[in-house]
TrEMBL record:
Alphabetical list of PROSITE patterns matching this protein: PROKAR_LIPOPROTEIN
Coiled-coil residue windows: none
Annotated InterPro entries: SBP
Protein name (record): Extracellular solute-binding protein
Family: Belongs to the bacterial solute-binding protein 1 family.
Record carries keyword Transmembrane helix: no
A matching Pfam family: SBP_bac_1
Keyword annotations: Signal, Transport
Signal peptide feature range: none
Organism: Nonomuraea guangzhouensis
Protein origin, superkingdom: Bacteria
């Protein structure tokens, strides 16, 4: 059976079996079970526990937080097969379609959600399915920017990059001019999570694609979409990055196999000096590298478009089959409340699970003293969320596989690869009945 047909069969089966099935936490110990995609015992997991404890204190509803990072979606699949989905899942906005098509999510009536009118409309877009209905409650938002080794930039005598040419020149200087002063040629310009796991190559490239006015698919109205990944603006962005891998050789060694976990460490170890990433690692890098050694710079507008970066974040998902529907709703309402948002932001400390607040009543500047957060907030105004196709996950994965290939194989023709990918995405959209 093909991957598409197998996925459809599983989705159909789960949609039937999950209706009315008990959840994992509330049926056993009357606690609302909350899963979050964070490493166990991490600072972020501890922040999630603080949020849950504050909710319990405010509502009287017991909670149980389960923090998982590796193979998060696979473990959810296993719970679904056992009819033991958690009551609440806090997970990426881009996972909405994947979970909805499997029948896991309850619909959210934003008009009846207390505090829902205080959540920004841009954030609500990331909780919307292809049918126009809402299947999550916005919790955290983020856009992307460049975290740069400021001390290295000053060492090589350059200004912050304002164009893609500037960015390439700075990357070359970081690679060739010994910015760390150890007398060895052991540094790179860019650090890139360019592996295919969870679609990271596509995830990284998307901010430069959007900054150049490109895209993966376009909406044609009526819940229908067409791929445009072979558009010249998209090809130009992917080509720019292939040139960094293959011609300028300014990317950290091994990048084509790395995910973000490894890439964070590469940056921290001083193996590269330019990281296009979200704000969630800012506090970590301030602590591990030093606040005076790093700066945050907007992603430069591409030669053919911009400005724009990837927009994403996390939603609170109320999972199907819970026997505590009222508790689910109350937790979602608390999570978007000013109190819930502030706890999740965790001020300037490491472990924030709310990157940029989605509640308009929460002032980022009043909660965080580090002005570098404002660069990310300003970028969010032009952020581009994944489109509300029924399931974005296979589109991101197919894109990552193709983009990773042209970065790993310097003989590969980018335009040809993007033409082939365009055909593959057409087929995927047809499978999803969204073409």
């Amino acid at each position: 059976m093909s991957r598409q047909l197998l996925g459809a069969a599983i989705a159909t089966a789960l949609a039937v079996t999950l209706t009315g099935c008990g959840s994992g936490g509330s049926s056993s110990d009357n606690a609302l079970e909350i899963w979050i995609r964070q490493a166990p015992d991490s600072d972020s997991a501890k922040t999630a526990v603080k949020l849950a404890d504050a909710f319990t204190k405010a509502s009287g509803i017991k909670t149980k937080v389960v923090a998982l990072f590796d193979d998060f979606e696979t473990k959810l699949q296993q719970q679904a097969a056992q009819k033991k989905l958690p009551d609440i899942v806090i997970n990426d906005t881009a996972q909405l379609g994947n979970m909805h098509t499997q029948g896991w999510l309850q619909e959210v009536d934003k008009a009846k959600l207390a505090g829902g009118d205080k959540v920004s409309e841009q954030a609500w877009k990331a909780a919307q399915g292809s049918d126009g209905k809402y299947y999550g409650t916005p919790f955290s938002a983020q856009a992307f920017a460049l975290i740069i080794r400021k001390d290295w930039r000053e060492k090589v005598g350059m200004e912050p990059p304002k164009t893609w040419d500037d960015l390439a020149t700075l990357a070359a200087a970081f690679t060739d001019k010994d910015p760390d002063g150890n007398g060895q040629k052991d540094t790179a310009g860019f650090v890139i999570p360019a592996g295919t796991k969870r679609g990271y190559a596509s995830w990284y490239a998307s901010s430069l694609i959007y900054a150049n006015g490109g895209d993966f698919v376009k909406a044609n109205g009526g819940g229908k979409f067409a791929p445009i990944v072979n558009d010249p603006k998209t090809v130009e962005a992917v080509q720019y990055l292939q040139d960094q891998f293959c011609k300028a050789k300014t990317v950290n060694p091994g990048a084509v196999s790395n995910d973000t976990t490894v890439t964070h460490e590469v940056f921290e170890k001083g193996q590269g000096g330019i990281y296009l990433v979200g704000p969630y690692v800012l506090a970590r890098f301030v602590k591990s590298i030093g606040t005076d050694k790093i700066e945050v710079v907007p992603v430069p507008k591409g030669p053919s478009g911009g400005p724009g970066t990837l927009g994403e974040g996390e939603n609170v998902y109320m999972m199907a089959g819970s026997d505590n529907v009222e508790g689910q709703k109350k937790f979602a309402e608390y999570a978007v409340s000013p109190d819930g948002q502030r706890i999740g932001m965790n001020k300037d400390a490491n472990g924030a699970i709310v990157r940029l607040p989605v509640n308009s009543q929460v002032d980022l500047g009043a909660e965080r003293q580090d002005p570098r957060w404002k660069v990310f907030q300003e970028a969010y105004a032009n952020a581009v969320y994944a489109p509300p196709v029924p399931n974005w996950a296979p589109i991101r994965q197919d894109s990552a596989d193709s983009i990773n290939t042209v970065w790993a194989d310097c003989s590969a023709n980018v335009k040809t690869a993007m033409d082939t990918l365009n055909t593959k995405l057409t087929q995927e959209l047809q499978t999803q009945k969204a073409s």
